[in-house]
Amino acid sequence: MHDDTQCNDTGLDRRTAMAALAVGSAGVLTAGATGSPAAASGALAGYAVAGLTDHDLGWSVEDGAYSLPELPYAYDALEPFIDAQTMEIHHSKHHAGYVRGLNSALEQLRQIREGSGDVALVQHWTRKVAFHGGGHINHTIFWSTMKPAGDGGGRPPASGPLATRIDRDFGGFERFLGHFKAAAASVEGSGWGWLCYEPVSRKLVVTGMETQQNEIIPGSTPLLGVDVWEHAYYLKYQNRRSAYIDAFLKVVDWNAVAARFAAAAQ
Ligand code: MN3
Q1: For residue 175, how far is its CA from the centre of ligand 1 (angstroms)?
Q2: Distance 113 CA to ligand 1 centre (A)
Q3: How far away, in angstroms, is 214 Cα from ligand 1 center?
Q4: 50-54, 135-139, 211-215: which has the minimum mean pLDDT?
Q5: Does the pTM of the predicted model rise above 0.85?
Q6: Is the dihedral of CA 196, 198, 203, 206 positive or negative?
Q7: Is the pLDDT of residue 213 over 90?
Q8: Buried residues in 125-162 as b, exposed as e (16+ CB within 10 A)
Q9: What is the number of alpha carbons within 13 Å of residue 214 lying toward its C-beta?
Q10: Distance from the CA of 190 to the center of ligand 1, in angstroms?
Q11: What spacing in Å lies between the alpha carbon of 126 and ligand 1's midpoint?
Q12: Residue 226 C-beta-side C-alpha neighbours within 13 Å
């Protein structure tokens, strides 16, 4: 298994990475915590974050830091598809670790700007912001696009703009599912499978993501992601990643995905 503190190889500069985290909310990260200008738009490691608020991300202006947002349901709510023990560890340990890592990296960059930190480590801490910031955002989206199967989770969109667009861009929902599952299953090592909205071509796209931020089309907006890090499924599914992906699809909140699409495609 991979640990949550690994670095990555993204080439973002500090300003880009930090500005990116401000997207979709009123100056999250940049304004209070760091003194950097908040960006009106941008991209964290290649994707734009539409529809997430300060509250969603646990941002506190007073503290100048993030906190772990609560789940919108109980740890056992997604049983039997996602087991309670995995959910609890995933949220309270792994997601919490990304929040801690993000706050720590931002604090280090602040100290560098104020002259008490080691300027030679700007690239290192910038990469940590991209990695842990990506982890925080990805998991926040992940939790918010699942719901219990008994409460409508897993029910595909029967109609509406998202259903229409999936038909147009993928040739039907089943073809989309095949593409999405293959992309997620074939991520090498730790990463994610995503359905994104790509604003230049104005199309839905499916892509794999390496670790928490790499290999995403720049500027695309994540709509639905499946976490395929082993910590997301190994307790229940061991090496059977595809079985876990099938189970995940039983608890997708397609109404939430449709809302994210509506916000992204405006
Ligand atoms: Mn995870």
Answers
A1: 26
A2: 31
A3: 15
A4: 50-54
A5: no
A6: negative
A7: no
A8: bbbbbbbbbbbbbbbbbbbbbbbbbeeebbeebeeeeb
A9: 14
A10: 9
A11: 21
A12: 30
Ligand 1 geometric centre to CA of 249 (Å):
16
Q: How far is the CA of 229 from the centre of ligand 1 (A)?
A: 6
Question: What number is the average pLDDT over the span 128-153?
Answer: 95
Read off the pLDDT of each residue in 78-99 and give the average, rounded to a whole number: 98
Per-residue pLDDT of 102-115, as tens digits, reads: 999 999 999 999 99
246 to each of 120, 223, 242, how far by Cα in Å? 45, 18, 6
Only one residue has tokens 């992601």, namely: 225
Radius of gyration of the chain (CA): 18
Q: Kindly give the distance from the C-alpha atom of residue 95 to the centroid of ligand 1, in angstroms, as a whole number.
A: 7
Taking the alpha carbons at both ends of the chain, their separation in whole angstroms is 39
CA 192 to ligand 1 center in whole angstroms = 9
Whole-number percent of the chain with pLDDT over 70: 81
Average pLDDT over residues 129-144: 95
pLDDT(26) > 90: no
Q: How far apart are CA 118 and CA 192, in angstroms?
A: 33
Cβ-proximal residues to 13 (8 Å cutoff; 6+ apart), any chain:
126
Q: Report the distance separating Cα 203 and Cα 19, nearest Å.
A: 25
Q: How far is the CA of 248 from the centre of ligand 1 (A)?
A: 13
Dihedral angle of Cα 232, 238, 243, 249, to the nearest 10 degrees? -10
